[in-house]
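Target protein
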Amino acid sequence: MLGFWSRFVHRDLGWFRPLVETYQVISSASVDDLWRKVVNIADVSWHPLLASTNVPKGLLPKPGLIYRAVTRLFPFPIRIFVERVTPRELLSVRILALPGIEERVTYRVESTVWGTRVSYSVTLRGWLSPLIWSIIRPYAARVASELASAAEQERSEMGSTKPKTTKRNSHGLLGVVLIAFSIGNSISGLIVVPR
């Protein structure tokens, strides 16, 4: 009888398949600008789900780091465990909020022909995952676009505060050809060939 019960429980756990969703957006910001925004875990002002963290400014995420964050939805703090970091490409964290749910979040930044692609993937497991997903889904859908907007805005603000430098007049290949042609014509007009 005990063997039947263990098989029943294992089948029962199969009903709670993980919920996996990935959101992507193309940004005009560079990979470096976006990566700086992702790894700046002390400043989450752009994040639709997180309000603040207890991370000191300047601390970069490394595998094994555990820090606290406060969400915008619930007043209680959650713990975030950094699982994997691939510089300028991937940050994977596990969110430890409630018993009965396991949440894994992955930020991915990659350069494409059309711009820089930002991906935000959420994986929820556990018997509370349908309930939690119904609450956080509209906010999770905005994370990638908010990240891209924040990086683009920061880049434009940094660009407007830089002192303006005068650009040298560079004409490119066409300019060089035109200049060479005009110099050639002026030299040929100066040279008199005796007949």
